[in-house]
Amino acid sequence: MSANLSAIFYLISGVLFILALRGLSSPETSRQGNFFGILGMTIAITVTFLSIGSFSSGLIYVLIFLLIGGLIGAFIAYKIPMTAMPELVAGFHSLVGLSAVLVAVSAFLNPEAFNLGSPGSIKLASLIEMSIGAAVGAITFSGSIIAFLKLQGIMSGSPITFRGQHLFNALLLISIVALTYLLCSTQSSNFFWMLLMVSFLIGFLLIIPIGGADMPVVISMLNSYSGWAAAGIGFTLENSALIITGALVGSSGAILSYIMCKGMNRSFFNVILGGFGATEQATSLGDKEHRPVKSGNAEDAAFLMKNASSVIIVPGYGMAVAQAQHALREMVDTLKKNDIKVTYAIHPVAGRMPGHMNVLLAEANVPYDEVFELEEINNDFANADVAFVIGANDVTNPAAKSDPQSPIYGMPVLDVEKCKSVLFVKRSLSPGYAGIDNDLFYKENTLMLFADAKKMTEEITKNI
Amino acid sequence: MEIDPFIFRLSIFILSIFIGYYVVWSVTPSLHTPLMSVTNAISSVIIVGAIIAGLAGNSGNDFTISNILGFLAISLAAVNIFGGFLVTQRMLQMYKKKKKDK
C-alpha cells in the first residue's frame, strides 16, 4: 500500500475517533459513537499491516501478542465491577504511558525502521519529538501506577509530603529540558536513558502528595498526559491518526481536569501542589465531640420518607464503597410505588472520577433522565421534603457558602439544608476527605443514620 | 521555499486540539466516565507504532531488542484497546431511559 493511501486511511480513522467522542453528547448516540471508535481502530491497525507489505515470520508473533493483550483486556472489561472503574481507568492510563515509552525506545534503538535516520544520527526534530513522547509517557506511567495504588487502597490515600518537595520537582523538570538538549547535541543514548529515569521519578513524585479526594483531578490529568504522549509519538511516526487522537485525548483530559477543579473551587496548581487534607484535619477535631446530633434508625427514616411527596437522593463515594447502588434503587422503587417523586442529585466531584456516580446508578438500572447535575437540581431542594444523603459529605457542607475560614469555602455545594428534612446515611461522624466537620450533622432537621449504606437502605425498604 | 511536512502535522495537531475542545465540552457530564474509558481506548492507537517496531527489519527468528519492545507494546496497547472499548460498551448499555408505561 502506498504511503499516501495509508496516510488517507489514518486520516479517516482520526475522523472516526472524533465522531466517537461526538457520540457521547447524549446517551442515545453514544453506542454508535463507540462503534465508530472501534471501526477507526480496526482501520488503523489493518492499514498498518498492509503498509508494511512484506510479511516476515515476525508477523505471527505480532498476532500472538495482539491476541494475548486482547484477551486480557476483554477479560478485565467483562469482570470489572462498576465501582472499580477509577482503578481500571488509572491502570489503563499507565499502559498507554508504558507503550508510548516502549515505542519511543524502540524507535530510538532502530530509527531506520521508522525513517528517522540511523543510530547516532537521528534527525533533530524526531529526536525532540521522541524525547517529549517518551518523557510524557514515562510520567503518565509512573503517575498512573501511584494513582492506581491509592485508589485500590494498597497505598494510603493521604498525601505524602516532604520538605523541599516543590523545589526538588522543579529541579527535576529543569533537568528534563537539559537532558533533552544534551541528547540532541550529543546523540548519546546515556542521556536518553537518564531522561526516562528522571521522567519516571517525576510521575511518581507528582502524584504521591495528592490526597484521595483529589483523585478525580488526578485521573483526568493523567488522561490528558496519556494523550500528549500519544501525540508526541504521533509526530515521531508521522502518523496523523495518532496526532489527531493525541490532541483529542489531551484536550479531553484537560477539560475534565478543569471541570473537576471548578467542582472543588480550587485552582489546578493548588491540587497538583497537594497537601490539602493533611493540614486541615487538626483544626476541626476540637469542638466536634460535644455537639448534639439526632440519630435515628431505619424505621424513623422510612416514616419520614413515606410521608414525603418528593425525595432527592444525594449519592457519594460512600455509596460506591458499600456497593449500595442496587439496594438504593430498590428503595426508590418502593417509594415510587407510594407515589413519591424521587430524583437524584449528582455533584461534579462525587466519587473518585468524573461521572462515577452516574455509571453506578446506570448499573443499578436507574433511568438517566431521573439523574440531575448540580446546576439543574439545586433549586429543587427548597421544594423537596426529604434529602437522602448516602455516602456523600463535603459536597453538602453549607460551610462552603457561609464560612470564609473553611478550606472548602466557595466550592459549589448541593443545598440539601434547604429541604424540610435531611437524612444522612454515614458510618460515623468522622469528617469527609477535606478533613472538616459538616455543620449539617447538627442541624435541627437532620437525622443521622449511622450504619453501612447498603444495610441501612435495605432496612428502610423493609420498613416503608 | 518548500514548507516542511512538520508544519502540516503541527497544523493537524493544533486544529485537532480545537476540535477536541469543542467536542468534549458537548459531552454530557453523566457520560464522563465512558468518555475517559473511550479516550483511553483510542489513545492506544499507539499500537500502530508498536506494530512497526515489532516487524521492523527482522528475518527469520532473530529479534532485536527493538522488535521485542515492540511486541510488549503491542500487548499493552491491545489490553487497552479491547478492554477500553468493551468496558465502554458495557457501561453505555446500562444507560437507559425511563420506561414510558410507568
A few lines on this structure:
The complex is a heterodimer of chains A (464) and B (102). Chain A has 464 residues and is α/β, with parallel strands linked by helices.
Task: Write a structural description.
The complex is a heterodimer of chains A (464) and B (102). Chain A has 464 residues and is α/β, with parallel strands linked by helices. Chain A contains 18 helices and eight strands. In chain A, helix 1 (3-23) runs parallel beside helix 9, helix 5 runs antiparallel to helix 6 (165-186) and helix 12 (298-306) packs across helix 18 (453-463). The longest helix of chain A has 29 residues, at 124-152. The termini of chain A are far apart. Helices cover 71% and strands 0% of the residues of chain B. In chain B, helix 2 runs antiparallel to helix 4 and helix 3 (47-55) packs antiparallel against helix 4 (65-94). Chain B is flat, with a radius of gyration of 20 Å. The model of chain B has no long low-confidence stretch (mean pLDDT 88). Chains A and B meet through helix 1, helix 2, helix 3, helix 4 and helix 8 of A and helix 1, helix 2, helix 3 and helix 4 of B.
Give a topology summary:
The complex is a heterodimer of chains A (464) and B (102).
Chain A: H1 3-23, H2 27-52, H3 58-79, H4 85-109, E1 117-118, E2 121-122, H5 124-152, H6 165-186, H7 189-207, H8 215-237, H9 240-263, H10 268-273, H11 276-284, H12 298-306, E3 310-315, H13 317-322, H14 325-337, E4 341-346, H15 356-363, E5 371-373, H16 374-377, E6 386-390, H17 399-402, E7 421-426, E8 446-450, H18 453-463
Parallel strand pairs in A: 3-4, 3-6, 4-5, 6-7, 7-8
Antiparallel strand pairs in A: 1-2
Chain B: H1 5-25, H2 32-43, H3 47-55, H4 65-94
Key features?
heterodimer; A: 464 residues; alpha/beta; six-stranded parallel beta sheet; 8% strand; elongated; B: 102 residues; mainly alpha; 71% helix
